[in-house]
Each structure stands twice: as structure tokens, then as C-alpha cells.
Amino acid sequence: MKVGRGSRGGGGRDGGGVVEEERSGGVEAAPPVKRMFRACRAVFRGTGTVPAPGEVDLLCSMLDKMKPEDVGLRADQEFFTARDDDEGIPLIKNTTLYECDNFTMIIFFLPRNAIIPLHDHPGMTVFSKLLIGSLHIRSYDWVDPEPALSCSSSSGDQLRLAKRVVNGVFTAPCDTSVLYPTTGGNMHRFRAIAPCAILDILGPPYSTEDGRDCTYYRAIPYSRHSVKNGAADQLTGVDEEGHRLSWLTETIPRMLRMRQIRYGGPPISDDE
């Protein structure tokens, strides 16, 4: 199943220069993760830019070929089997390969049944490559990118209308998925069917100072509330394009435990 490659949420160049640079001689001798880093450094140019179609294709083609061993992983490593469940909540671990103002490369390790709750990626383009395991993904986009279609619940929570983009199970090896600032399922939820390793490349990265903080959401069935909305069928809760609708409200996750661990793959530095 492919996710989000064909729908972009912003501008960008044609990416031709980047493609030619990465396909030229000399680069192929470097380890795959270092080639990936060099491509990201050329593609991600800071806040307000979205990779062009050619750049998206380049990064996807490189990530599609990425194997666990390219980032120093084995399927039998301890963090795929240990639970660390002193509170009964699966412990999610992550390791940062590289980070700068323009992009971040990070791997998440989810034990079986671990959940990363529904959350957003404001103004960001995110490439996700499932390296190991099996993962259920459910993702949404706002029906209206501007927060106009909203209402309040009986408890006073602010609700905003969203359309479901993805709802399915992915098993490694599978295609890279891409989400954009306003399309491709910018808000997503992960649940590990089997122990997983997910390589994420986020550009630009989260930054509270720059207005890109991570917000978590809870999905509420569309039928529980109604709104005069020409884009939605009031009875079925499905929009004109067949997307199932839900209301999202901000929440604070209480069943989420994360810990950072040391990266053990090929080193990456600005001197590459």
C-alpha cells in the first residue's frame, strides 16, 4: 500500500539539481544512510518550503531500498523484545541519527501493541520508512486547512472536522509513506502489530520557538455532532471524495512512554 506520494501541500522546485547530484559518480560509494543524509541536506531548505515532486521521488526511492542493517539494526535486538512495563504501558524508544534546523532523521522502536497517539506535524513534510515489523496506521487531514469548520462538544471541548486518509496495516518491507503540511495524512496514529522500527525524516523538525509544537488529538465519531457543512453528508459522515469524517479534539496523552537511546549505526556528521 502506498501512502501520500501523489498529493503535495505546498511549493518547491523541480528537484532536478538534487537528482543529478545524487546520481552522479562518487556518491554511490558511501553507505546508504550517508547518501540519504546528503540528499536530505540538499532537499530540505528550511521553514516554508515543501520538497518538489522530483525531490520526493528521489528520497522515496532511496528510503525504499533502505534495510535495517543500513542503520545498524537487527530484528533480534533487545529493544524489540524487552517490554519495560513497570506501569503496564509499552515503552517506545527512539534514537536520533541527525538533527539540524532544516530536518531531523530519527528511528522509533515500538514493542508489540505500543501506540503513538494521533498527533500532527505543523508545516512539515515527513517521510516514514518501516524497516522492521508490522504497523497499523490511521491518518487524517483537516477538511478545511483553515480552522473554520469547528464546533464545541457538550463538555466544552473544541472540535474540528477531519477526513480519514489512511486506515490500514503495513508490513516491512513496504513502500515509504509521505505526509505534507496539509495533505497526505498530516495527523497520524501508529499501533505496533508486531515489534517495529520506523525511520522518520521530518523537514523542518518540530520547534516550539518556530510554532511547530506537537499537538495530540482524540478522534470522535462524526455522528455524535452535526454541522451545516456542504462538503459532508450528514447521515453517512462521508465527504464527496469518499473519505470518512471524524471530529478531532486536542488532548494530552496519558498512555505514552518514550525514552531516547544511543544511535548505533554509521555515524553522520556535517562534514559528510
UniProtKB/TrEMBL annotation:
GO terms for biological process: detection of hypoxia. Its cofactor is Fe(2+). GO terms for molecular function: cysteine dioxygenase activity; metal ion binding. Residues 1-18 have a biased composition (Gly residues). Coiled coil: none annotated. It catalyses: L-cysteine + O2 = 3-sulfino-L-alanine + H(+). The keyword Oxidoreductase applies. It comes from the Eukaryota. Residues 1-27 are annotated as: Disordered. InterPro entries: PCO/ADO (IPR012864), RmlC-like_jellyroll (IPR014710), RmlC_Cupin_sf (IPR011051). Keywords: Iron, Metal-binding, Oxidoreductase. SUPFAM superfamilies: RmlC-like cupins. CDD domains: cupin_ADO (cd20289). It is an enzyme of class 1 (oxidoreductase). Its EC number is 1.13.11.20. Belongs to the cysteine dioxygenase family. This is cysteine dioxygenase. It comes from Oryza barthii.
